[in-house]
Amino acid sequence: MNGRSAHLAALLIAGLVPAMPILAASGPAEPSKAATQPDKKPMPELPSPYTPNYSRGAVPPATGQPPDVAYGAYQRGQYVTAFREATKRIEANPKDAAAMTLLGELYNQGLGVKQDPVKAAEWYRLAAAQNDAAAMASLGLMALDGRGMPKDTKAGRRWLEQATANGSSTAAYNLGLILIGSGATPDEAAAAAQFRKAADAEIGPAQHDLGVLYLQGRGVPKDPGKAAQWFRRGADNGDLASEVEYAILLFNGNGVTKDERSAARYFLHAASRGNAIAQNRIARLYAAGRGVSKNLIEAAAWNLAAAAQGLSDAWLDQTLSGLSAEERTRAERLANERIEQR
Q1: Which single residue of 35, 51, 61, 131 could bond 31 by disulfide (Cβ 3.0 to 4.6 Å)?
Q2: How far apart are CA 141 and CA 121, in angstroms?
Q3: CA–CA separation, 254 and 14 (whole Å)
Q4: DSSP states of 29-62 as a string?
């Protein structure tokens, strides 16, 4: 969508986006493969020390300690300053794990210094030796990817397990993805447990994936109500996949009280964030006047936006074929504006 309409985990999404046949007797066109099948990288893009734009709190929580100058500089994009301050800290305290992890991150991404995954791994290893969970999580992902070191799936998993044991919620999420990807039924329960750790830490993608497991009854008892609760929490945390799934459940009254108007609001918000499935669904709602006032121009605009991402819909194309040239021009203008805003 955003990256995470591309963040709908391919391992979990199969069969999750149901049709809304009540909008048309013929039923809606299913989303295209491009719209529902994300990039199948082994690890997703979510905030972790290994991924771009990760930011760690500049003030350690509930300790009363002064601001962390090095991480504060990192958060502000002042990477040369961050590197300098982290280096000074290590000179003063050779066991400063947080500063080591920061240097690893800077080398890993090439921020303020020349990108060097090997040096990044070296700094992460030093921090991991001091029981830094973030460094362990990064080492796990690097080992899985073969970045800065030989690819080693077993070692990557061990690092993630250690990071999880040391309290890393992002490591727990990634470990859950490894488990669910094994295809073994016993691993599904273990994956659900890892997703729950991350979900309880308010990691939106984990909340989404735990909701999927409840919806499908994989690793946990099938429970659409709990699925809806996790999707709602994920949506509240800005997870686009959760937003779409919660809207689907709301519209269909599955696991939650049916509410077409609320569903339309969620679809509209997700559509404005660039999700093709949501764009298709809100287009259908505008075309049918369900949850929103009927508006064929809006329907056409959202249909065009979805089509630009590869999600076509023959039913909508037929329904909107009677628009006048002036109405079609207005719809195209709206669609272009929305596409450009992505």
Answers
A1: 35
A2: 11
A3: 18
A4: PPPPHHHH-----SS---SSTTSTT----SS-TT
Q: What is the mean pLDDT of residues 115-135?
A: 96
Q: What is the mean pLDDT of residues 178-203?
A: 93
Q: Model's pTM, two decimal places?
A: 0.78
Domains and CATH numbers, the chain: 10-40+202-341 (1.25.40.10), 69-167 (1.25.40.10)
* Cα gap 251→14, rounded to integer Å: 20
Sequence-ordered list of residues with C-beta below 8 angstroms from that of 163, at least 6 positions apart, any chain: 133, 134, 136, 137, 140, 171
Residue 258 Cα distances to 183, 204, 249, 269, angstroms: 33, 23, 8, 18
- 328-337 average pLDDT score: 95
Amino acid identity of residue 103, one-letter, is L
The per-residue pLDDT for 327 is 96
Cα(149)–Cα(154) distance, integer angstroms: 13
